[in-house]
Structure formats: structure tokens, C-alpha cells
Amino acid sequence: MMSAGASQSNTAHAENAAGRIYDIQGYAVHDGPGIRTTVYTKGCPLKCLWCHSPESQRYELELGYLAVKCIGTDLCENACIKACPQGAISRDEPKAALDGSGMIQKATIDRSKCKNCLSCTGACVTKALYATGWETTVDEVYDRLSRDRDFFKNGGGITISGGEAMAQFPFTLNLAKRLKGDGVHICLDTTGHAPAERYEEIMPYIDLFLYDIKHMDSAKHKRFTGVGNELILENARFLAKRGAALQIRVVVIPKLTDNEADLRKTAEFCASLGEAVKLVQVLPYHKTGRMKYDRLGWRYKLTNVEPPDDGFMEEVLEMFRSYGLNCRLH
Question: Measured on CA atoms in the order 134, 28, 294, 130, is the torsion positive or negative?
């Protein structure tokens, strides 16, 4: 990942800063007010156990494999196998084709040999093998976002998300500046884990911070995400004191973040930020990201965790509201 040192600061004001993203999603209705387009950057200092976008965690481009799209190595004449310089790709055991046409041998990847050179992605005719992101610039992303302007006329806008967008600060800052110059409503979806001076610099260009509070206990926070929560809570207070608008996101995960005492501490913290908190989203854990781990060859660690039931989520919502907070589910 880009370092937080001199290389960042030397390019922080480059108007056409380079960046690395893994998706641009139009018609996003859960990433801030109205209909939005969301830019997803790669790289995050947190490694949450429940992360539903594991392809966002590493700054480096990785090999993804969507096996259902593989038509079989015979039909493509072993193109991916031939393209791999590490010998990491081979033919899997014969399996019945989904269309009933017979037996096929799909590609299989030895992740211990794969160096993520991505040579195979260019050879794969169906794009079953793909890179988990691409290199881009502020100019390129700005031009892409400009196509969606008609969707923003009724209160929508652009959301810059991740990973952690603040980990690619030159790119995120200059994209926000460019968009704000056009009068676009901008949300920044952030974990809060970045130097305070970066938030201070970008704050004039952000209309709403979508801010994650994952756990109030720093030891548990570190166990579940890989980092403590001190910087995150400090930055939330920093932004609130300087008049930023915050939309707090709290994910409720059975066995990890659903303890009533812990949730009450989170509600108390949100309330302590005062009028800066415009909305608290209480989000139930979901399982939709699990298949993405298979595509990367990763092991999903919460296999025995199920989403919380609706009744419990309503109780959590009412508890947050009891602290005078404007709240909603999802």
C-alpha cells in the first residue's frame, strides 16, 4: 500500500493523481442520500473479520477466479495454463457441466505458487480469471462519473469509498476537489483510521462522512479488525468539533459486536458527538460477501455466524433512539 510518508505528501496536490480502484458502481442507494455513484478504492488498514469486500483490503492487484464462468480448459486449449509462468494453474478433476453437456475440466489455482502476475487474466477468454482492480487517475474517474450527472439532480451525488479511501490520499483529495468544484454532493465512506490532518484538509470538500464505529472496546476492536480504535474515536471527535456532518454506521454481528453493554457504549459515544451526527445506521451482519473469499482463495473465518434476527435488530434500534439519536436500520 502507499506509505503515509513523504511520497504521499509530495503528491497530495497533484490534480491528476494516480489511484487504484476495484469498482465504480452506479445507482447506489445505500451509500448516502439519494441516488449515487460510488467509487471503491483499494487498500485498507483494517482487516475486519466480517469484511464483505475482501478484494478491497490489499492495495496490490490480486488474481480473482470466478469458477462458474470457466468453460473448461479443453475449449480454450489450456490458455490460462500456458500463460502462467509459475505453473500455478492446472486442470481440475472432471465435473459435470451445468448445462448437462457432459464432463469438463475447469482450471484450478495453486495459490502457494501464484505470484499475482496476472498473466493468465489476459489469456482467459471468459474472464473467469480477473484482476481485482485497476490503475486509474483522477481525470479518468472524473470523466466516468460525469456520465451519471442526470441521476444526481434530486439529492444524490458521489460517494468515495474503499477499502479506506484516505489510504490513497492524493487521489481521494483531488477527486473530491474536482467534484466539489462542479457542485456535486460528496460523501466519504471511511473507517476513521488515517491522520487527523488529512481529514482536516479534505473536510471542505466533503458534505457527509459515512463513518464506521465498529467497537468501543479497543482490545476487541484490534482482535476483530487488526487495529485498535483510539485513532478512529479521536478522529470522530475531531470532525465533530470542526462542524463536519457524520452518518455513523454500526454493524451488529452475533458473538462479536452484539453485546448490549458494548452497543450502549457505542450509542453513548454517538450521542456525545452532538449535532454532528445526522444519522446512525444500525446494520445487521449479512453473509453476501462470503463467496468473494473463495474467488481470492481466502478462508472466511465467520462460517458459523448467522445474521441477527429482525426482532433483536429492532431492540437495538430502539436502544440507540433512547439516546436521542436519529436512527434507521440498513
Answer: negative
Burial of 43 from C-beta contacts in 10 A (0-12 / 13-18 / 19+): buried
Look at residue 6 in the predicted model and tell me its pLDDT. Answer: 37
DSSP string, 161-214: ESS-GGGGHHHHHHHHHHHHTTT--EEEEE-S-S-HHHHHHHGGG-SEEEEE--
The predicted pLDDT at position 4 comes to: 39
Query: What pTM value is reported for the model?
Result: 0.93
Quick: pLDDT tens for 230-253: 999 999 999 999 999 999 999 999
Can you list the domains of the chain with their CATH numbers?
Answer: 6-60+134-329 (3.20.20.70), 63-131 (3.30.70.3270)
Residue 223 to residues 113, 136, 218, 228: CA-CA distances in angstroms?
Answer: 29, 34, 9, 8
CA distance 102 to 260: 54
